[in-house]
Design brief:
The chain is an alpha+beta fold. The chain is about 40% helix and about 20% strand. The chain folds into two domains: about 30-65 and about 90-240, Cupredoxins -  blue copper proteins (Immunoglobulin-like, Sandwich); about 260-350, Immunoglobulin-like (Sandwich). The radius of gyration is 28 Å and the shape is elongated. Strand 1 and strand 2 form a beta hairpin. It has a five-stranded mixed beta sheet with strand order 3-2-1-5-8. It has a five-stranded mixed beta sheet with strand order 4-10-9-6-7. Bound molecules: dinuclear copper ion. Dinuclear copper ion (CUA) binds next to loops. It is found in: Cell membrane; Membrane. Pfam families: COX2 (PF00116), COX2_TM (PF02790), Cytochrom_C (PF00034).
């Protein structure tokens, strides 16, 4: 009975682990379902090293089992000691050379991939034109992401727009503490440091994750504070022509309040000094302002509120009412007076109207 119970316990533990591990496979968030050249290279390297390890484990296990069986103590020969062998040149050479070969098998592709992934020479090209390479400056803040397209003078936040099927080059910087930029399905990760700019490129082969999700997920991959796990961004990959259209729209958008209630919200936005930190136009005259807090120009069409909540009226109100409850340690908490219901309605309507796609 007792034995049966132990078995049952072990079985349920394994079942639970299977369930937990099954959560790691979402295509919009999984490094195991690569959606770009970089992620594919990283995946292939991972597979290569796993295969090498499995071969080593298999060979060692087979030899081990063979030895255990061959030299086991047999009935009637309890005192027999097998012939003792010490030192064998041939064997010693073999088991020194094999690991060296295995290391070479791992090292050659790894080093060549490292150089390929780190090649950002085109960013330094004299008189680089926007057509030569798309460059995006990423600044990571507690707990949000700023994306600047320096060739177009466009700044946005939280939703990263990129063209598909071409190399996109990134300058990565941390605005306050060290964060790390990671889009699991497409590649990474690389630290965003405060004292130097890290650079790399990514390629987005697919417009959408293979499960049909609307966008890829980006994560902060460096423990940076209480809301580190909530420091998400979304990636929208568009064919080049659509991406160009998006840039055009971004350059020509002005925040306008369409309804009376939205106008009231706009007024509150200025009176409660939201405007002091948040820019509402993608091309802002004051880039410093866009750097203090997320640029809200595309807020109405953002994938998520604060990176984590579905973008709907209820969640915007929730966020404005008590940001601390949603993202502990964020910098918006206590920067404005409590809003009453009417003010919340007006601000929500104004924010929902901030869109580039009209
Ligand atoms: Cu930013 Cu973790």
């Amino acid at each position: 009975m007792k034995k049966w119970l132990t078995k049952w316990r072990l079985l349920s533990l394994f079942a639970l682990m299977t369930l937990v591990l099954a959560g790691c496979g979402e295509p919009f968030l999984s490094a195991l379902q690569p959606a770009g050249e970089v992620a594919q290279m990283q995946y292939d390297l991972m597979m290569l090293s796993i295969i090498v390890m499995l071969v080593v484990i298999a060979v060692v296990a087979v030899i081990f089992i063979y030895v255990v069986i061959k030299f086991r103590r047999r009935k009637g020969e309890e005192d027999k000691i097998p012939e003792q062998v010490e030192g064998n040149h041939k064997l010693e050479i073999i088991w020194t050379v094999i690991p060296i070969l295995l290391l070479l098998v791992l090292a050659v592709p790894l080093v060549s991939a490292t150089f390929k992934l780190g090649n950002v020479n085109v960013m330094d090209k004299e008189n680089r034109k926007p057509e030569d390479a798309l460059v995006i400056n990423v600044r990571a803040h507690l707990y949000w992401w700023e994306f600047e397209y320096p060739d177009y003078g466009v700044i946005t936040s939280q939703d990263l727009y990129v063209p598909t099927k071409e190399k996109v080059y990134f300058n990565l910087l941390g605005a306050d503490v060290k964060h790390a930029f990671w889009i699991p399905a497409v590649g990474g990760k690389l630290d965003t440091n405060t004292d130097n700019t890290n650079r790399f490129w990514l390629k987005f082969d697919q417009e959408k994750p293979s499960d049909g999700s609307e966008y890829f997920y980006g994560k902060c991959a460096e423990l940076c504070g209480p809301s580190h796990a909530l420091m998400d961004f979304k990636v929208k990959a568009l064919p080049r022509a659509e991406f160009d259209q998006w840039i055009d729209k971004m350059k020509n958008t002005q925040a306008v309040a369409a309804t009376d209630k939205a106008k009231q919200g706009e007024q509150l936005f200025q009176e409660k000094s939201c405007i002091g930190c948040h820019a509402v136009n993608p091309v802002d005259e004051r880039p410093e302002a866009a750097r203090t807090a997320p640029n809200l120009a595309t807020f109405g069409e953002r994938a998520k509120i604060a990176g984590i909540l579905d973008n709907d009226e209820e969640n915007i109100r929730k966020w404005l009412k008590d940001p601390e409850a949603i993202k502990p340690g964020n910098k918006m908490t206590n920067t404005y007076p409590k809003l009453n219901d009417e003010e919340l309605d007006a601000l929500t309507e104004y924010l929902q109207g901030l869109k580039v796609e009209k």
